[in-house]
Amino acid sequence: MKYRLVYFAISALVIAVGVFSLLKWGLAFGVDFKGGAILEYRFNTDVSEEKLTSLIEGTKAQVASVQKTGNGSYIIRLSPISIEQKEIIGVLLEKNFEAQELRFENVGPSIGPELVKKTLYALIISATAILLWVAIQFKSIKFGASAVLAMFHDSVVVIGTYSFLGHFFGAEVDFLFVTALLTILSFSVHDTIVVYDRIRESHKKLGGSVTELADKAISETMVRSLNNSFTIIFMLVALLLLGGTTIRWFAATLLIGTVSGTYSSPFVAVPILVTWEEIQKKIKG
Which superfamily, per CATH, for 4-29+112-284? Predict the structure, then answer.
């Protein structure tokens, strides 16, 4: 814990860059938030998602996802397009891949304002429940509050980084991003509780100051946390490189969140707890 100010400075720097990106460029919302068009085609030849995406985006249409169905057809989700653009896309697909059109429709956003509002309410309720549960289990509100602050740290890091990726690489916020963000929050708290539990066990057996117990707990759990995280990171990197365009940014979001969550448990949540304890002792003293 001797270098916890350095850990706080690193987190502050990453968050500051993310907040700057959010204020300057905002988030690029995808078809799930803005609505768009759905095209369904059946192909007589084998077609890759990358080729389809590249061909369609050559017409200035923005492809959100390409999904292969069980009957051999492909469902293509696009940004809103005109009938003329749809005709151009149809001609190109028929010419290059002997495609047969099965469906075309313009749709509204699948994630509306009401669903966004409910998601925010769910996040607030879950964060409050986590705070209370951890506080009850460890018999101190400091543990619960520190875990929730680390969880929000990971959320801000992911959202800010995604804003940066959206501006420079075209990453869009869609339903998969929301799913990945919720998954990351649970991972972050889980890893934090492992460290807290080791602090509690050491306190019962050995006693001592929170700073000493925190250093001991981090040393004992670091290898376990890194091994656990690397198994997830290896899988996500493989998914990012080989998973195709549809889930590329989903894998990237999970990867960012996994790295942030691995860092925040020992280097954000525990330092917050130790700093809180020291400030409380000084006030009492």
Answer: Multidrug efflux transporter AcrB transmembrane domain (1.20.1640.10)
Asked if 175 contacts 110 with a C-beta cutoff of 8 angstroms, the reply is: yes
Global pTM value: 0.79
For 170-183, b/e burial (b = at least 16 CB within 10 A) is: ebbbbbbbbebbee
Q: Which fold has domain 36-107?
A: Alpha-Beta Plaits (3.30.70)
Amino acid identity at 134: V
Count of CB atoms situated within 10 Å of the CB of 57 = 12
Q: What span, in angstroms and rounded, lies between the C-alpha atoms of 273 and 163?
A: 30
In the chain, ranges of CATH 1.20.1640.10 domains: 4-29+112-284
Query: To which H or E segment does residue 229 belong?
Result: helix 210-242
**What are the helix (H) ranges across 243-269?**
248-264
- List pLDDT tens digits, range 91-112: 888 888 888 888 888 777 766 6
- What CA–CA distance (Å, rounded) separates 50 from 30? 18
| Main-chain dihedrals φ then ψ at residue 237, nearest 5 degrees | -65, -45
Domain with CATH 3.30.70.3400 in the chain: 36-107
For every residue of 127-183, DSSP letters joined together read HHHHHHHHHHHHT-HHHHHHHHHHHHHHHHHHHHHHHHHHHHH---B-HHHHHHHHH
Torsion sign, CA atoms 97, 102, 103, 104: positive
Q: What stretches of the chain adopt beta strand conformation (E)? A: 36-43, 63-68, 73-78, 99-107
* pLDDT score, position 66: 81
- Mean pLDDT value across the chain: 86
CA 39 to chain centroid? 28
Contact 243, 251 (CB under 8 A): yes
Cα–Cα distance for residue pair 223/221, rounded to 1 Å: 6
